[in-house]
Amino acid sequence: MVFRQKQDGSFCGEVEPGCKCLIPRDGQLTYLVSEVEFGEDHWVSRDRGFDPSTHAYLWGAENGPLRFSRSHRYGDHLDEGWLQNDHATS
User: Residue 10 CA to chain centroid, in angstroms?
Assistant: First the structure.
C-alpha cells in the first residue's frame, strides 16, 4: 500500500499498480485493487478482486466503498510513557 498526504491533511493510498498483490479467493487466484482514504475522523476503504488473466471483476464492494466515521476517542489517555512500555500480553 502506497500512501500520500492530501492538502486537507488526510491520507489516501492504494496497492501498487501491476496486478502483483495476489489473493486466493473461492479456489481461484485473484489480484487485489485496494483503495483507502483516512483522516482525523473518517476511514473509507474499497477492496476488489480481479482475474489475473482477463482482468474481469470477481469480488468486492458492489455498492461502493465502506465508509466509517469516528464516534469515540480511546487513546487520549495514552502518553509517551505508556507508549514506551511493553503492553503485550502473554
Answer: 14
49 burial level (CB within 10 Å; 0-12, 13-18, 19+): buried
Instruction: Determine the 3-state secondary structure of 73 from DSSP.
Output: coil
CA neighbours within 13 Å on the CB side: how many for 32? 15
> Average per-residue pLDDT in the chain?
88
Asked if 16 contacts 23 with a C-beta cutoff of 8 angstroms, the reply is no
pTM of the model: 0.71
